[in-house]
């Protein structure tokens, strides 16, 4: 079956079953490998993308459910919040193994898009469900605060 998807600002036609998870289309069909597979059940957050600007887990999202939705992956995210988060991540050396980081970054961008000055409690609540095997949660929280400061400047 041929389905048209709006991904990273382009309309792309893919040949896949309607129930194929978006993650597999992104990685296997479109060869955008920044979005990671972690658990396959939407529990870890590694596969997080933005759908209409909001963080969503792509591993359980069937492509037929997208309709006219705009999907943005880590490969193309380019908002002021994204630039601030990426700069803060580098400045504070957040990454350890790095596997979860694309999902962490996409979620952090979503948080700062909704709440430019989040508290620790806001960060913990919003980022809940983004698993980090290396337990860099304190560095992630600090980077989100730093990205918030960068957005204010």
Describe this structure in words.
The protein has 153 residues and is an alpha+beta fold. Helices cover 38% and strands 15% of the residues. The chain is built from five helices and five strands, in the order ββαβββαααα. It has helices at residues 22-29, 80-91, 101-114, 120-127, 137-152; strands at 2-7, 10-15, 48-51, 54-57, 70-72. Strands 2-1-5-3-4 form a five-stranded mixed beta sheet, with helices on both faces. Helix 2 (80-91) packs across helix 3 and helix 2 (80-91) crosses helix 5 (137-152). The longest helix is centred in the last third of the chain and has 16 residues, at 137-152.
Q: What order do the strands of the largest sheet run in, or round the barrel if closed?
A: 2-1-5-3-4
Count of DSSP strands: 5
Q: What's the shape?
A: globular
Helix/strand structural class: alpha+beta
Helix coverage percent: 25-40%
Mean pLDDT, as a whole number? 96
Point out poorly predicted stretches: none
């Amino acid at each position: 079956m041929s389905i048209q998807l709006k991904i990273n600002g382009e309309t792309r036609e893919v040949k896949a079953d309607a129930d194929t998870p978006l993650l597999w289309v992104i990685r296997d069909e479109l060869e955008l490998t920044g979005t990671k597979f972690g658990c396959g059940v939407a529990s870890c957050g590694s596969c997080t993308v933005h759908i209409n600007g909001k963080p969503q887990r792509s591993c359980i999202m069937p492509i037929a459910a997208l309709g006219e939705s705009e999907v943005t992956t880590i490969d193309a995210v380019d908002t002021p919040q994204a630039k601030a988060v990426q700069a803060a991540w580098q400045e504070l050396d957040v990454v350890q193994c790095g596997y979860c980081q694309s999902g962490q970054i996409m979620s952090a961008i979503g948080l700062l898009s909704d709440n430019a000055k989040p508290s620790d409690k806001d960060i913990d609540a919003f980022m809940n469900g983004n698993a980090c095997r290396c337990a860099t949660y304190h560095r992630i929280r600090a980077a989100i605060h730093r990205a918030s400061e960068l957005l204010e400047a």
